[in-house]
User: What shape does this take?
Amino acid sequence: MILVVSTLHEPSVNRVVRHLEDRGAPWARINTEEFPLLRAGRIALGGAEPHGVLDTPRGAVDTRAVTAVWMRRASRPAVPRRFSAKDKAFVADEANAFLNGFLDLVSGRFVNPREAERRARKIPQLELARRCGLSVPRTLVTNDADAVRAFAAAACGPVVFKPLAGVGSNGHDFARDLGDRFGEAVEVEPQSPSADPDAPAELVFSQILTPERAAHLDALRYAPAIFQDYVEKAFDVRVTYVAGRVFACRIHSQEADDTAVDFRRMALRERIEDVGHALFEPPVPLREGIERFMQAAGLVFGCLDFVETPDGAFVFLEVNPSGQWLWVEQLTGAPISEAVADALCS
Ligand SMILES: Nc1ncnc2c1ncn2[C@@H]1O[C@H](COP(=O)(O)OP(=O)(O)O)[C@@H](O)[C@H]1O
Ligand SMILES: [Mg+2]
Assistant: This one.
């Protein structure tokens, strides 16, 4: 039995599930908003066979039967709107503790292991990548404007800055879409405290530290950020790593001004397919560096961002352990969803 732990609107789940069905692999999905209000769970301890059972739309799932768990962007539980803030927090913590304890009783493979996903934060991953032989940009993380000025003065070229923790783009209030399924008004707290459920999903893009922007550096006292040497690009490279398989895609971000500094600005266009995407065979040293890094990070799955320089070097920027790949699959035909299904079945 393969258990998918996800959230109500996660488009990648349907794609992967289709491949599980092609293989005849039994699967079930729990959308974490639905526990505990809509789904019951039972964990029995103190006997010879400690185990948990969780009701899902496809029937009850027993931890003893689960061979693999796909952790795909779990969310927080839906909580009645009428509850006080204190009660909402209590419910969320209790639900979370139950689900984590349930998953602790599973001995199958986790994609990704939960501790590895928690550890995969920006600062330690840059240092881990360096130790694994990947090249990384000179980096300063700070809220100290003077330190940034010194960093920029020592740079050979431009400096880029970007957020450290990202933005709470997970601010979508799923409960609004649920209508009367819960039988009462509920809400789902955003994953990140910064996410405003009334705002559309947002990104803060990477930007060059120009003299005009440098004039606002004192605003750093409100929030630290990452500063890096700007790596000159031939291409942005998105590597999707799935259990030893490497799907490397060049993104032709340098052909237009809007995508040159941050390729994700293509999302603001009407047609993202106008930005070239091409699969390529990564050179062996890059492939080996990625493998070493992913092993050391304990990650089975990850979306890695690199810059490919005009002289063909690859510079590591980050790994997102639950990154999105559907657009790469759609634009290039890379069989990533199938590889995820393979990883869950093996
Ligand atoms: N040091 C850098 N040099 C050049 N471009 C960069 C650098 N850091 C980030 N970028 C660009 O910004 C975009 C997002 O980069 P990334 O490091 O993945 O940021 P985030 O953590 O916000 O996703 C990519 O287009 C990437 O090429
Ligand atoms: Mg990124």
